[in-house]
Please model this.
Amino acid sequence: MVRRTKTEAAATREALLDAAERVFRDKGVAHTSLAEVAEAAGLTRGAVYWHFRDKGDLFEALCGRVTMPMEAMLTNAGGTRQQDPLATLRTLAVNGLTQLATDARAQAVFDVVFHKCEFTEDVAAVAERQRSTDRGCLLNIERLLKQAVAQGQLPLDADTAMAATALNSFVVGVMHQWVQDPGVYDLAKAAPGIVDMFLAGLRVCPPRRSAAPARKPATRKSRAATSG
Model:
């Protein structure tokens, strides 16, 4: 009997989270009430408060059900020496895009967090989670880029911090655009080529920490001295 009660409670909680995912995505977090979530789940408002303290707690639990795409890049790969750092970076970036493309729940939560949510005080925990993810992802990318410099895959004066920011912005930008209209193209199929395009540009023309100063145009006096 106890087992059945726990099972039913878990099923009710999941039903509320599924309903919240749909309603948040449709109306936005700020414009959704807990009563609307309960109605969408076919349950009472009391059922919502039995499982969640408030809307912020519900939203945090919703986000906690998935691994956000960029969190897929938060492995310890950047903290250990890689034989081919750029290949490792490629794998992490492709995996992040592929995970989003193949996980419908991750797509829904990504869409809610980035397009249907105002980061107010009641969802502060989710906002901090996202900031922590961003910081960790950038750090991991830069560690791999520094290894690439050390192994001669990138020049010694490559600006690894700027390159990490550029790659992160590129991948996240692709995610943002695609999730708003997934039918435009097959992201899972396109992911390797998309990442390869960026890395090819990085290899050929990486950002540099110190560019040579631009030569000043010769003045009339200096040209005369030279010609004399």
User: Anything to note?
Assistant: The chain is about 70% helix and 0% strand.
